[in-house]
Specification:
CATH architecture of the largest domain: 4-Layer Sandwich
CATH class of the largest domain: Alpha Beta
Bound molecules: MU-OXO-diiron
Number of domains: 2
Number of strands: 23
Shape: elongated
Largest sheet: 7 strands, mixed
CATH superfamily of the largest domain: Ribonuclease Z/Hydroxyacylglutathione hydrolase-like
Number of helices: 12
Distance between the termini: 47 Å
Strand order of the largest sheet: 1-2-7-8-9-10-11
Structural class: alpha/beta
CATH topology of the largest domain: Metallo-beta-lactamase, Chain A
Oligomer: single chain
Length: about 400
């Protein structure tokens, strides 16, 4: 995609990535891709804000060269050191040896650690201002959104916030970069939630701290380093991030994430009865086959819903391993204080529920109910399953 003006003399010069299958080496993005958004300010002083992954450095240089000779760059702002935004620093160092890298003190050490760059680096303080001529940048430390060194940059004449990872989302850009131009806003919102829960959720309190810190600013445009640029309604993505971050410590909305696994179809058959009961009670429900779904897609559902229904057979006197793996991912993301229930088949001894409870013990979940059955479910078991699902859904509604 060619460079796109955001306003006079400020350009989006981002790069789409549709060839990386796993973001951070683990989160699937094969289908939707991701963008690494960089921005260029052409004033008396010329500043580049955020870079790209090393595999896309040629594309970034091409974008840049269409607007300015790299040897004319004065500043390169490094808001965040994760290599999806800094993989191109070495080539920029070569092409723009006169440019000064602007970053936080912690990022200065990381520039050396990751890339061996020690020269031409200037540390900017929290709240420090830098005039580019007509435009002026202010740097705000927003630690742990996403790494400890992270900062956001604010351009005050156009009221544009460049917050790097904050307010970002998965999804390569499809020609339109602005929230008011895309016809696919629901997709980007869904991918922003998946990105938030996969990447940022562990840092929800720092996210709330950052939103509070930046709240005195008048923001006309939110220009993050992944996904859409928000100019029609910049508060929309800020408020969504705030809502998602609060879910780390506040109750989620009534709803059920049903995570199940099945070896020979018995637990799956019961799953359909349980799902029928939940749906009959009018509670939103998402169903995931643990063995066939990456945790990336299950995490957002659990993050935003109050109930977790686990369906799994006993396997070697323990929990069916694909379900165990998913529960471990929930522990990694610290999805606390959900209401839970368990159902599943066993052959000659149980063990699945005990292991499930052991895995999620750090999350302080409240276990409301259990429905274990031996072998294959009978007609009367399906009836019990429906009632079990409905009872769980009613308990979620009653607890709000
Ligand atoms: Fe988009 Fe934390 O890097």
């Amino acid at each position: 995609m060619p460079a796109i003006p955001i306003c006079q003399d400020i350009y989006w010069i981002g790069v789409n990535d549709r060839t990386t299958d796993l973001f951070e080496g683990m989160w699937p993005i094969t289908e939707q891709g991701v963008s690494y958004n960089s921005y260029l300010i052409l004033d008396e002083k010329k500043a580049l804000i955020d870079l790209t992954k090393s595999t896309k450095e040629e594309a970034l240089v091409s974008q840049l060269s269409g607007l300015v000779n790299c040897s004319e760059l004065d500043y390169i702002v490094i808001n965040h050191m994760e290599p999806d935004h800094t993989g191109a620093v070495r080539i920029l160092r070569q092409l723009a040896p006169q440019a000064v890298f602007l970053c936080s003190a912690k990022a200065q050490a990381m520039l050396d650690n990751y890339y061996g760059i020690t020269e031409g680096v200037r540390v900017v303080a929290d709240g420090e201002k830098l005039s580019l001529g007509k435009k002026e940048l202010t740097f705000y430390s927003i630690p742990f959104v996403h790494w400890p060194e992270t900062m956001a940059t604010y351009e005050s004449s156009e009221k544009i916030l460049f917050p790097c990872d904050a307010f970002g989302g998965y999804g390569a850009l499809r020609g339109a970069i602005f929230d008011d131009e895309t016809a696919d806003l629901p997709l980007y919102l869904k991918e922003a939630l998946r990105y938030y829960v996969n990447i940022v959720a562990r840092f929800s309190q720092p996210t709330l701290n950052a939103i509070k810190k930046l709240s005195p600013l008048t923001i006309d445009v939110v220009a993050p380093s992944h996904g859409l640029v928000w100019r029609r309604n910049p508060q929309q993505i800020i408020e969504l991030y705030q809502k998602w971050a609060r879910l780390a410590s506040e109750p989620a909305e009534p709803g059920v994430t049903l995570i199940y696994g099945s070896m020979y179809g018995n637990t799956e058959a019961m799953m359909n009865a349980v799902a029928e009961g939940i749906s009959r009670c009018g509670v939103p429900l998402e169903i995931f086959d643990a063995a066939r779904t990456h945790a990336s897609y299950i995490l957002p559902s659990v993050w935003t819903k109050s109930g977790v229904m686990i369906g799994a057979p006993t396997y070697e006197v323990s929990l069916f391993p694909p379900v165990a793996e998913q529960l471990e991912a929930l522990v990694e993301k610290r999805i606390m204080k959900r209401k839970a229930a368990y159902f599943g088949s066993y052959g000659w001894s149980g063990g699945a529920l005990k292991r499930a409870q052991e895995i999620v013990e750090p999350l302080q979940w409240e276990w409301l109910d259990t429905l274990a059955f031996q072998g294959g479910p009978k007609l009367e078991d399906f009836k019990r399953g429906e009632e079990f699902g409905c009872k769980f859904a009613e308990a979620l509604k009653a607890s709000q």
